[in-house]
């Protein structure tokens, strides 16, 4: 009876582990797919002997891909970043804190560049027509007409407002004080539509952030509980979030992906 129970527990554990893993890597040694091998290296046990074969293989494949890729291939940058990680560690798996640090450094570089240029790097073409959905003709991006005017208003910062906002964001990015009352929120918009993200807390604490299609925007808000809402290409988005430290929220999916 005890052996039967032990066998049952072992089978149950194996099934749970397989579900948690979510992928079958039984034929991984035959794989020629960079992303599949990369996923295996992230998921596999550190002592799995297949690592010694697959890690150098996928690194060679990434190197070859970068060498043969078209100059405009957007995957090259991802391959370069993955290859750099694999040269320093067993896999491309990174912790949540490491991801936050990477995002933070990218945002610092972005806003430092904007301050150096003394202006926004994006030019918007507001729409005033009643029956049009296009508000950014350069990007051919569209949002519902009901929000078009509000989106344009939020994006229409004068140079002084833009500089003050950028300085505030940079100060928050450099601020590592856990007792700070504010935090950074980065919204990444992968959709084909310009959007407005609304953040509402208790009382009159409300924020609005315009995020162009295939772009990102950053805002400094008070820490606390918030309801995030948005209309993403006609689809309603709503999520309750606790803001205690810098976070990134990704909305939408690219039609080209």
UniProtKB/TrEMBL annotation:
Residues 160-253 form the DUF6759 domain. Pfam families: DUF6759. Keywords: Signal. Residues 1-18 form the signal peptide. This is DUF6759 domain-containing protein.
